[in-house]
UniProtKB/TrEMBL annotation:
NCBIfam families: tatC. The gene is tatC. Keywords: Cell membrane, Membrane, Protein transport, Translocation, Transmembrane, Transmembrane helix, Transport. Its main location: membrane. Signal peptide: none annotated. Part of the twin-arginine translocation (Tat) system that transports large folded proteins containing a characteristic twin-arginine motif in their signal peptide across membranes. Together with TatB, TatC is part of a receptor directly interacting with Tat signal peptides. It comes from Streptomyces lonarensis. This is Sec-independent protein translocase protein TatC.
Length: 311
């Protein structure tokens, strides 16, 4: 019975992790499932709490829309906020709460994303990547704040296209969709430097290569900003300029990291370059006398011809 109890305790022991972070495919899938479960649970908890403050959050999100009670009706510079449908108020509450949960729980799910990638990094790379991930949540929240700052300036520009003597009716659902889309787009766009630095820490891409991408990256960021933002140029510049600046900051960090890594590893040679060899001959020591082996009568092994086994 004691032996069976010991076997049971051994079965309960968790398998030790590989010090180099190597895992099988099943272990990778199990790790991904656990990380996703923690991230979704954090978003769900914050969403439930946010439902108690949904009205206040909704007032904050709809504040950028100029109300016709404050502006001159028929001027085309204001809009009336309405809701359509019997279930629209409840659906709006759920959308606002879920959006709040996604934003406020960003530190948790960003950390889970890093924790899933970190086992594949070396110990020194984990230390630097942990410092980089500490900026992930502030970058995401900064992008959300920039989107909220931009909306009061972009919406009046869009409303100026209204024909004369015509009014605007904007549903709460449409306004929230634009707000959420911009906030998520800005938040993930501000994560670009974090992703690039993590790829550099993992040895996937070098800083020199990132610097060589600058023309394509600037053009790609501008196209992305033109797609996700409203039609006015100010909104496009408000997204493209800071993201481009963050891209060059990430490139600078990657170049510094490559230089540090090169100093630690020593000088590197190209494929067709031979390393320096010291071909100076060294003096050879004078040969020493070999002690004759003992005779079989002395208890030693038998030798032949006065030589040992090696000779």
């Amino acid at each position: 019975m004691l032996k069976a109890a010991r076997n049971g305790d051994q079965r309960k022991e968790k398998p030790q992790r590989d010090p180099e972070g190597r895992m099988s495919l099943v272990e990778h899938l199990r790790e991904l499932r656990n990380r996703l479960a923690i991230g979704v649970l954090a978003i769900f908890v914050v969403t439930v709490v946010a439902m108690f403050f949904a009205k206040d959050i909704m007032a904050l999100l709809t504040d950028p829309l100029p109300n016709c009670l404050e502006e001159e009706p028929g001027s085309g510079r204001c809009a009336d906020l309405v809701q359509q449908g019997l279930t629209s108020p409840f659906t709006t509450y759920v959308k606002v709460s879920l959006f709040t949960g996604l934003v406020l729980a960003s530190p948790v799910w960003l950390y889970q994303l890093w924790a899933f990638i970190a086992p594949g990094l070396h110990q020194n790379e984990k230390r630097y990547s942990a410092a980089v991930v500490a900026f992930g949540a502030p970058l995401f929240l900064t992008g959300v704040y920039v989107a909220h700052w931009l909306l009061p300036r972009a919406i009046p520009v869009l409303l100026q296209f209204t024909p004369d003597n015509a009014g605007n009716l904007v549903t709460v659902s449409d306004l929230l969709d634009i707000t959420v889309r911009l906030a998520i787009a800005f938040g993930f766009a501000f994560e670009l430097p974090l992703v690039l630095v993590m790829l550099n820490l993992g040895g996937v891409v070098s800083g020199r290569r990132m610097l060589g991408w600058w023309r394509g990256m600037v053009m790609g960021i501008a196209i992305f900003a033109a797609i996700v933002t409203p039609t006015d140029p100010m909104s496009m510049l408000a997204l493209a300029v800071p993201v481009t600046a963050l891209y060059f900051v990430a490139t600078g960090i990657a170049l510094l990291n490559d230089r540090r890594r090169g100093r630690a590893a020593g000088p590197e040679l190209s494929d067709d370059e031979a390393s320096d060899l010291d071909l100076t001959p060294e003096p050879i020591d004078a040969p020493g006398r070999v002690t004759p082996p003992r005779s079989p009568g002395d208890g030693g092994p038998r030798r032949g011809g006065g030589f040992d086994d090696v000779t």
